[in-house]
Write a structure and sequence with these properties.
By secondary structure, this protein is an all-alpha fold. About 75% of the residues lie in helices and about 0% in strands. It folds into two domains: about 15-175, Tetracycline Repressor, domain 2 (Orthogonal Bundle); about 175-303.
């Protein structure tokens, strides 16, 4: 499948107004950033030892800025396909409200600043992981995988799974098995989360030339993969309990949420109209938030 040209024409109703603060905030993908920040904070909170509250805040802020920087660079690179997708055509770059060079410069400056602050104020292990996350998202996922393979989300999803590991490293200065377990939870969660959305936006991705799994393999194969990953996610989500990071409060929540996730995945598999797809997509966001909130609550209550 050939890539779209980077000079694809934007929609006819392009706005030529000068960029405002809100446009640059939109480049940061704030909704995506919020979940990234929350899971990063959870990793920091669950890590053993004590971290000064100010340094903890700096670490979380660095994760947030790095996530936003990655989003801005991603929007710069994907401005051609964003312009032809209904879901993304109102973003600042397709609408002509932000110049491409400004978006790229904005993202690069924020990326460099986030890594420098993390390294100088916190530790170099966390800074190295933060650098890896940005590079992985920009070069491996955005520039390499997204337009070339239906496995783009499976492999590229690793970028979104690093934040709790970064938070853990910020508090401890190392990568432990427990932080890898947190990484794996998000890694397993990412494919069914995005494929549920892709089922709804199938025509959007097809029009843009993005080989998402429903476009390449069809709905039935995508639904089977969603069920497989939901089945893998359920035991993976119990790993914080197995490793002694969390106790019975988290265990109960993880089992209940995993059963609900699996039930929705199975329901989608037999839903020919794909009406369950958007419900699964919405629930998957709630699932990840509740799971990491339960980790924090369990640690706070049980110690």
């Amino acid at each position: 499948m050939s890539d779209l040209s980077m000079n694809t024409a934007a929609p006819a109703a392009v706005l030529k107004n000068e960029a405002g603060v809100g446009d640059f905030v939109a480049l940061l993908k704030p909704r995506v950033m919020s979940l990234v920040v929350f899971t990063g904070f959870a990793g920091l909170y669950l890590a053993p030892g004590h971290m000064h509250p100010f340094l903890a805040a700096v670490a979380v802020l660095s994760i947030a800025v790095a996530a936003g920087a990655s989003g801005a660079i991603n929007m710069w690179y994907d401005r051609d396909i964003d312009a032809v997708m209904q879901r993304t055509c109102e973003r600042p770059l397709p609408r002509g409200r932000v110049e491409p060079g400004d978006a790229l410069g904005f993202g690069v400056v924020l990326a460099l600043a986030s890594v420098m602050v993390m390294g100088l104020a916190v530790n170099y292990v966390a800074a190295a992981l933060l650098t890896l996350t940005i590079l992985f998202y920009v070069f491996v996922y955005t520039a390499w995988l997204k337009r070339r393979t239906p496995q783009n989300i499976v492999i590229g999803g690793a970028a979104g799974a690093f934040p709790p590991m970064i938070g853990w490293a910020a508090a401890t200065g190392r990568v432990d098995l427990a932080s890898v377990a947190l990484f794996l939870i998000i890694f397993m969660w990412t494919p069914p989360h995005f494929w549920a959305l892709a089922l709804v936006r199938n025509s959007d991705y097809a029009r843009a030339g993005v080989p998402m799994l429903p476009v390449v393999a069809g709905d039935a194969a995508t639904k089977r993969q969603i069920v497989i990953y939901a089945a893998l996610l359920a035991p993976t989500s119990l790993s914080p309990w197995w490793l002694g990071v969390n106790g019975w409060i988290y265990l109960g929540v993880a089992v209940a949420m995993g059963a609900a996730f699996m039930a929705l995945a199975l329901r989608l598999m037999f839903d020919r109209a794909n009406k369950t797809a958007m419900r699964l997509f919405g629930f998957s966001i709630l699932y990840l938030f509740v799971l990491f909130a339960a980790m924090i609550a369990d640690r706070t209550i049980l110690g």
